[in-house]
Amino acid sequence: MKYQAPKGVSEYFPPRSRSFEWVRETLLTPIKGSGYQLLELPVFEETELFTRGVGASTDVVTKEMYTFEDRGGRSITLRPEGTVGALRAVIEHGLDRGSLPVKVFYSGAFFRAERPQAGRYRQFYSVGVEAIGSNDPALDAEVISIADAGFRALGLKKFRLELTSLGDSQTRALHRVDLLDFIAGLDLDEVTSARAQLNPLRLFDDKRQEVRELMSKAPMLLDYLSEESHAHFESVQSYLRDLDVEFAINPRMVRGLDYYTGTTFEFVHELLGAQSGIGGGGRYDGLMENIGGQPLSGIGFGLGVDRALLAAEAEGVVDQAAFLNDVFLIPLGTKEMSVALSLSKALRAAHFTVDIAFGNRALKTAMKYADKSGARYVVIIGDTELASGSVDLKQMHTGETTSVTLTSLVATLSSERSTW
RNA sequence: GUGGGCGUAGCUCAGCUGGUAGAGCACUCGGUUGUGGUCCGAGAUGUCGCGGGUUCGAGCCCCGUCGCUCACCCCA
Q1: Disulfide-capable partner of A219 in A50, A82, A178, A321 (CB 3.0 to 4.6 Å)?
Q2: Looking at residue A132, what DSSP letter applies?
Q3: DSSP annotation of A9
């Protein structure tokens, strides 16, 4: 084989592409039902937007971006996440000059040059929302509940929602002083302490048991929350209870993007292995201003479509029944094919999913094909039927065959449909 | 980026201590003229990831390379 897909990309092809499509649409449904409107954006932006927005010290920016120079000598980067580009578009087109909050959603491919792994791809798919221009804690709760509703609509059960607050800038500044102080007193290896210098919060996320024990006595950010931040966070939790969204406070949660402030959350699936985060997000207070917009607060999330699919498969909840074909047409000759084609057009106009047996194959083979396509009904069009202006309609699961006139076929199937 | 495992027909894999490839599923055709899901028969399919090396001889050994995979790291 000469050509292969680039390393580490996720590709979806039949039959699994149907499942992928189902996952993406299902995650999108509660979003569309909550007043969010589509943002269809470029997959590349000028590099500086990401280094400023995501944060120059993050792993995403320092070692995971696909950056290249275009023909005009501009530095371009394939989007590694969705929020920054979304905000750029909101600012550029003045969407935040109208009524607030601005509520937008996106769906598409994102790129990170990481070593591939289960659930981690160089090109991956996310759907997400951004709600900009309101710091109402009820909005936090609504955003979180939309993500939760998406996962539940898939039928997922083995996941948990982890929640914390990163507070405001004073909160983090005060905490950082004490945390660095604490870390200075620890006996850490070189790599780890270097990581701590860059972002001391990272150490809370270390998977090694010995580091976890060392960090168990570290000062927690939640204990430093300002009065305002604390009240906001309490309020978010209270609203989540009103919405019946279960959550667990995880004060050690760390996110890899610098812009998060205040409410921060992550959905973690239990069956996924190392890459277990199926979605996450949070508030970003300074981000709009940082990339040249008004000083508006905002909150959003990104949900991993690839990982949600993996999770749905792991839980065995992928909806196969939704993939059935309604009608399969089998013409037994070229004249019959003409009839089949016009019949297919009429049936599709009546919103039936219709497939046709092409290639003039044996009836037996065509029947097998129809069976595998999951067709509910097969319509056999042969010369004997056409002579009488009718076709054979076979209901696959009962095996029952009836003769139906060509003119009444659409009506017959339409009335049958109510019994499906 | 670091480390481990793996790479044989479309898929899942078998190939014993090196002697030039197999199974199941899937696919195609058929089991008397136009009917599926079962059964039976027949058939097609591979530069054994790629490139070097060792050897009389390599799918099996060595090196490199590409890819997959798992973990670290990071995150969707």
Answers
A1: A178
A2: E
A3: B
pLDDT in tens, A110-120: 999 988 888 99
**Distant-in-sequence, close-in-space partners of A175: CB < 8 Å, separation ≥ 6:** A167, A219, A221, A224
Of residues A58, A121, A35, A43, the one with CA closest to residue A260:
A58
Query: Which pair of structure tokens corresponds to residue A83?
Result: 């929020």
Give residues 71-110 of chain A lying near strand B (Cβ < 7 A): 81
DSSP string, A360-406: ---HHHHHHHHHHTT-SEEEEE-HHHHHTTEEEEEETTT--EEEEEG
Q: How far, in Å, is the CA of A363 from the C1' of nucleotide B75?
A: 52
Cα angle for residues A376, A378, A380 (degrees, 5° grid): 170
Q: Got the DSSP string for A72-92?
A: TS-EEEE-S-SHHHHHHHHHH
Chain B positions under 7 Å from a protein CB? 1-3, 27-30, 34-37, 49, 66-76
A363 touches strand B (CB under 7 A): yes
- Name residues whose C-beta falls within 8 Å of residue A7's C-beta, 6 or more positions apart in sequence: A116, A122
Distance A337 CA to B69 C1' (A): 47
Using the structure block, give the residue that is written with the tokens 């508006």. Answer: A296
Rounded to the nearest 10 degrees, the angle between the axes of helix A305-315 and helix A16-32 is: 110
Q: What is the ipTM of this complex?
A: 0.86
Q: Each residue of A88-122: b (16+ CB within 10 Å) or e?
A: bbbbeeebbeeeebbbbbbbbebbbebeeeebbbb
Report the alpha-carbon distance of residue A110 to residue A209 in Å, rounded: 33
Bridge-based pairing state of the strands A261-269 and A377-381: unpaired
| Crossing angle of helices A169-184 and A190-198, rounded to 10° | 160
Whose C1' is closest to the CA of A255: which nucleotide? B75
CA–C1' span, A365 to B45, in Å?
Answer: 20
- A272-285 residue pLDDT tens: 988 899 999 999 99
What's the CA A366/C1' B44 distance, rounded, in angstroms? Answer: 20
Is residue A244 classed as helix, strand or coil in its secondary structure? coil
Would the Cβ of A21 be found within 7 angstroms of any atom in strand B?
Answer: no
Q: What is the pTM of this model?
A: 0.92
